[in-house]
Fold this sequence. Notes:
By secondary structure, this protein is an alpha+beta fold. The protein contains three helices and five strands, in the order H-H-H-E-E-E-E-E. It has helices at about 10, 15-30, 40-55, and strands at about 60-65, 70-80, 85-90, 95-100, 105-110. It is elongated, with a radius of gyration of 21 Å. The model has no long low-confidence stretch (mean pLDDT about 90).
Amino acid sequence: MIRDRGRIKWTSMMLPEHVKMLRDWAHEDTFEEQRILDEQQLEEMNAAIGEAMETGAAVTIIYYENKRHQLLIGKIHYYNELQQKLHIIDKFNEPHYIRIADISDVRLTEG
């Protein structure tokens, strides 16, 4: 019976630099591309943001940060027009500052 140990048997013959490069390469494979939004999606997001700011409702925001899409649930505190950022307070009362250009999706949260 052949016992194959997979990568374990090859790592002893590899230089540490090569092992690090392989790990970095595997990590880079998990990176995501930023979504490109069309005009209709932008209008829907604008309506959701406007309604959330007017009523104080909670929103679910998907935004692009560090080559990945992140999820944030909270209330929009205000919109900084000069810096083009939304100031959002999450459920733990922590502030988050998200650039408008990085936002992929905004939806009103029920509950």
